[in-house]
Amino acid sequence: MQPLEGITVVAVEQAVAAPFATRQLADLGARVIKVERPGTGDFARGYDRTVHGQSSYFVWLNRGKESVELDLKAPADRALLGAVIDRADVVVQNLVPGAAERLGLDAGTLRARRPELIHCSISGYGPGGPYRSKKAYDLLVQCETGLVMSTGTPEAPAKAGISIADIATGMYAYSGILTALYRLARTGDGASLHVAMIDALGEWMSQPAYFAAYGQEPPRRTGAAHPSIAPYGPYRTDDGKVFLGVQNDREWDALCRGVLLRPELVDDVRFRTNVDRVTAREELTTIIEDAFRGLAAEEAVDRLERAGIASARLRTPEQFTRHPQLRARNRWRAIETPGGPVRALQPPVEVTGHEPVMGPVPALGQHTEAIRAEFTAAEEVPA
User: CA-based Rg of the chain, rounded to a whole angstrom?
Assistant: First the structure.
């Protein structure tokens, strides 16, 4: 039996944040009924055409779901959605601000009829305050939370390379729904949940916010190097770069003796503490790269490994899909999409003896007629 077998989730969702949350529920065995616009569907379907003619975003976010096309302004379709919600355990929505209330899909309206329902709303900036009606997308929330000003180089701030605000929000929605399901099982009480993107990414930005507010200095944008730990980042070898990380004075000692072959640096006043090493970052980089001169990257990595210093090679996203560690651990599974099978990475939490569902990615409206038949028939059964 799957962990969430028997749980029905209605997802009035689009883009990334809400679909990411509900896909986690589908992987655990929940039935996720995804409501999409007739003709066009979730606009994430149109972000690109790279995966057998489909969007890489949509394939990533929507496996294991049922797709139903409904016009939420049409009375018949709205009535059908009501019938589905009447038999659901969870409703998730991330419509534009105010739309759920206009459509009667807000927590207050739905839970007045069914107090046991778990309702999760996702927004950019929360239900109150001057930004409550403001549209929000991932990059814009990265800007508002200070992430863009914390990333990049001294000359040019940069966004994160992934939809980090959406992902953070989706994960908090997912964990909040699981918590509410646990409470429902114990008490029979539902819940009204709200997750704002600014709050979710704001939590993840707490350390740089503390550093800047209490340290009274602007963010340190250091490219691929760590802004407040050294040595921690990329260093040149004869045929490329290796990344290494030193987290404490014990590892600094090991680096000096076993890798740099410069034991006198351990007690050098320029590098005695991490704060000292950050201050002298440029000098330290020169010393490390001098020690790597004449070494290929793999030789440098071998020396680091023998000394117990953490290291990594810089890989592209495509190279990640061929990572030997994932292959050795059998972490990939084949899933079906409308354009053909693709490999998908298993969910991060491994449960011994349990295989996640990882169902197919639906075509737009693939389940519309089946949903109409199932829930219309249920409504016509005499009480």
Answer: 25
Q: Which residue spans within 246-337 are E strands per DSSP?
A: 310-313, 332-335
* 55-86 tens-digit pLDDT: 999 999 999 999 999 999 999 999 999 999 99
The type of residue at 351 is: V
Q: What are phi and psi of 241, to 5 degrees?
A: -125, 150
Dihedral over Cα of 121, 126, 130, 136: its sign: negative
To the query of whether residue 226 is one of the catalytic residues in this protein, the response is yes
φ and ψ of 90, to 5 deg = -135, 140
Give tens-digit pLDDT for 181-224: 999 999 999 999 999 999 999 999 999 999 999 988 888 888 99
Neighbour-count burial for 358-370, b at 16+ CB within 10 Å, e otherwise: bbebbebbbbbee
Helix (H, G, I), strand (E, B) or coil at 380: helix
- Residue spans per domain, the chain: 8-205+327-380, 232-315
Domain 8-205+327-380 has CATH 2.170.120.40: no
pLDDT greater than 70 at residue 381 = no
Residues whose CB falls within 8 Å of the CB of residue 278, separated by 6 or more in sequence, listed in order:
228, 229, 230
Nearest CA to 24 among 41, 44, 54, 4? 4
Q: Cis omega before residue 360 (within 30°)?
A: no
| CATH ID of 232-315, from 3.30.70.3550, 3.30.1540.10, 2.115.10.20, 3.40.1160.10 | 3.30.1540.10
3-state secondary structure 203-229: HHCHHHHHHHHHHCCCCCCCCCCCCCC
- Closest by CA to 360, choosing from 98, 10, 72, 58, is 58
Give this prediction's pTM: 0.91
CA 87 remoteness from chain centre:
29
Q: Are 255 and 231 in contact (CB under 8 A)?
A: yes
Catalytic residue among 119, 226, 323, 354: 226
pLDDT at 383 over 50: no
